[in-house]
Amino acid sequence: MSKKSYAVTIAGGGSTFTPGIALMLLEEHDRFPVDKVTFYDNNEARQEIVAKACEIYFKENAPWLDFTYTTDPEVAFTGTDFVLAHIRVGLYAMREKDEKIPLKHGVLGQETCGAGGIAYGMRSIGGVFEILDYMEKYSPDAWMLNYSNPAAIVAEACRMLKPNSRIINICDMPIDLMDKMAHMVGIKDRKELSYSYYGLNHYGWFTEVYDKDGNDLMPALKEHMKKNGYMDGIEMEGDKAQHIDESWIHTFGKAKDVYALDPETLPNTYLKYYLFPDYVVATSNPDFTRANEVMEGREKKVFGACKEIIEKGTSKGSDFEADAHATYIVDLACALAENTLERFLLIVPNEGAVYNFDPTAMVEVPCIVGKNGYEKICQGSIPQFQKGMMEQQVSVEKLVVQAWAEGSYQKLWQALTLSATIPSASVAKEVLDDLIEANKDYWPELK
Ligand code: NAD
Ligand code: G6P
Ligand code: MN
C-alpha cells in the first residue's frame, strides 16, 4: 500500500475498547499516519456516546483528523484501508446469558470457551460476515484486522465460507503473556523476546522464548510458572496494567496448575477452562459472572468517562487514555501497509505449519507479515497430549461452523457434546435447548 496517510474504520464503534484504540492511533501517528477515522456500529445510541466523546477529544487534541461516525455501511466502508473489527453481537446482555445458562446445568460459562463460546460463535459469524460483505462492496482492497470473538470460530467460518476475504484474525492474550514474561525476567519491552508457539486461539502453548541475544529464557520462566503461574509478571500500574480485575488475577495464578500438566511448555491462560472445568464451575458464582464484573467495571468506567466529556464539553481532565497495549494492532497494520516483515502470532489455516495436525484447521502460529499478507513459520510436530486436545477442540469449532452453515441441530449438539467442558451428551442437549431459546433473535433456525 505505502500511502502518505491511511483511513481506518473501527467496526463496533460503541465498544468499550474503542476510545483506547482510537487514542492509541493518534499516539502512533508518526509511525502509522492515520488521518481519517470512521466509527461504525449498528447500535446508533450506544455508538453515539463513545463517538461524541471521541469527537470532542479529537477536536481538542488532533484538529487535523477527519473524523466521522455512522451506522451507514456505505459511509463507513467506502475509501477505507483498514477495518479494525471488535463487535459483540448481542452485547453484554447476551454474554451474561452465555455464562449463566451453562452454569445452571453445572457446566462452565465463559465468553469464548465451552458452551458460552459456542453460543457466541453462532451469533458472531453473521455479524463479521456482514461487515466483510460491506468491505468487499465498498473497499475490496481493505484489510480487516479482526479481534471480534470468539476468534477461533470466526476464523474457521471465514476459512470455510469466505476463503477469499481479506481478514486477519489476531488475539491479544499471548501479547499480554509476553508482557508478563518480559516482566518476570526483568526485560522492559516484550518486543525483545522471540518465541515459538502453536495451538488454536485461546488454546495454545509457548515452546521457546529467547531474549534479543538469543539466550534461552525458558529455564527462568519455568521457575516462575512452577511457583506462581503468571502472577509474577502482573503489573498493576502503567501501560501494561490490563486484565487486572480479580477474576483475571485468579486466572494468572491458576496457570501454575495448567503448567504442571506439561512443564516443557508455557500455556495460554484459557486452557484452564478445558483442563479444570470442574474447578471453574465450583469457583463460579452463578449470579455474578465475568459479564457482570465487566458491566460494573470496564463498561461503566468507559461510558461514564464518555458521558462526562460530553456533559462538560471538554476532554480536559478526563479519564480517557490510549490503550498502549493495543499498539500490536498498529504494528500489524504497519506490517501490511509498509511491508515491515514483522513477526506476529496469527490465527491462520494450518496447511502443514503444525506438521502432524489437520491441515484444514485454523491454528495460532507465528507468521511473518508484509504487504502481500502473511507467511507461516512451521512449528514442526507436536506431542500426543496437545495433539489430542487440539483435535477434540478443533472438531468442536468446525462442527459449530457447519451447524451454522447448514442450520443443523444435530451438529451443534455434537459440538457441545465433544467440548471438554461438557460431561455428557444429555447435559449437552439440555444446555443446547436453553441456548436456542435465549438466542432465537440471533442464531439461524436449527433443524
Ligand atoms: P461491547 O459490547 O462494548 O462493544 C461491541 C460493539 O459492537 C457494540 O457497540 C455493538 O453495538 C457492536 N456491534 C454488535 N454487532 C454489530 C454488527 N453486526 N455491526 C456493527 N457493530 C456491531 O464489547 P467489548 O467488550 O468492547 O468487546 C468487543 C469485542 O472485542 C468482543 O468480541 C470481544 O470479545 C473482543 N475482544 C477481543 C480481544 C482479542 O484478543 N481478540 C481482546 C479484547 C476484546
Ligand atoms: C483477553 C482475550 C480476549 C478477551 C479479553 C477480554 O484479552 O484475548 O479475547 O475478549 O481478554 O476479556 P474480558 O473478560 O475482560 O472481557
Ligand atoms: Mn483473545
Care to give the gist of this entry?
The chain contains 16 helices and twelve strands.
Considering the chains and any ligands shown, give keywords for the structure.
binds manganese (II) ion, binds 6-O-phosphono-alpha-D-glucopyranose, binds nicotinamide-adenine-dinucleotide, three-stranded antiparallel β-sheet, alpha/beta, 447 residues, nine-stranded mixed β-sheet
Question: Any chance you could write out the topology, listing elements then pairs?
Answer:
Elements: E1 6-11, H1 18-27, E2 34-40, H2 44-61, E3 66-70, H3 73-77, E4 82-85, H4 91-104, H5 114-138, E5 143-146, H6 151-161, E6 167-170, H7 173-184, E7 194-200, E8 203-210, H8 218-228, H9 246-261, E9 266-267, H10 271-275, H11 277-282, H12 290-312, H13 327-338, E10 342-349, E11 362-370, E12 373-376, H14 384-406, H15 409-418, H16 425-438
Parallel strand pairs: 1-2, 1-4, 2-3, 4-5, 5-6
Antiparallel strand pairs: 6-10, 7-8, 8-9, 10-11, 11-12
The structure holds nicotinamide-adenine-dinucleotide, 6-O-phosphono-alpha-D-glucopyranose (G6P) and manganese (II) ion.
